[in-house]
Amino acid sequence: MDRTRWIIFALIVVGTLGGLIAFSKKDSVNVDDIDTAQIITATDTATGDHVYGNKDAKVILFEYGDFQCPGCAGAYSQLKAIKQEYEQQIAFVFRNFPLTTIHPNALAAATSAEAAAMQGKFWEMHDKIFENQSSWQDADTSARMAVFSGYADDIG
To answer: What are the CA-CA distances from residue 112 to residues 50, 90, 94, 121 (Å)?
Structure first.
């Protein structure tokens, strides 16, 4: 190849890479301005945090939870007791944080809880998923779909 063809080739490569970078940032969300210590309210385009208790409380307890995590399931009963006992004094916020590399069913569980949230039933599904973790944690794709659909039917 002569020099002109190399220059044209290099310009095409640089242009293509620049276009890919610009295109990949088109739908990105800037989270730099989000205060993670505050409750995120729902908007027309975002669901917002799932809050149990007094949203105006001075004490906010955040849980970044993975529905398939054994540790999260182990803490569930204690956190549920705290939520119920101090319902008027604290705000309990649950934020989905599925660790998909080690928990293959975590994203499906989180998605099921979010679908329930869209119908005003997040906490019911949250409790159902954690209380029955052992029955779905090792399920394959088709089985987990049936399990989560069954939970949705159970909570209405």
So the answer is: 14, 26, 14, 10
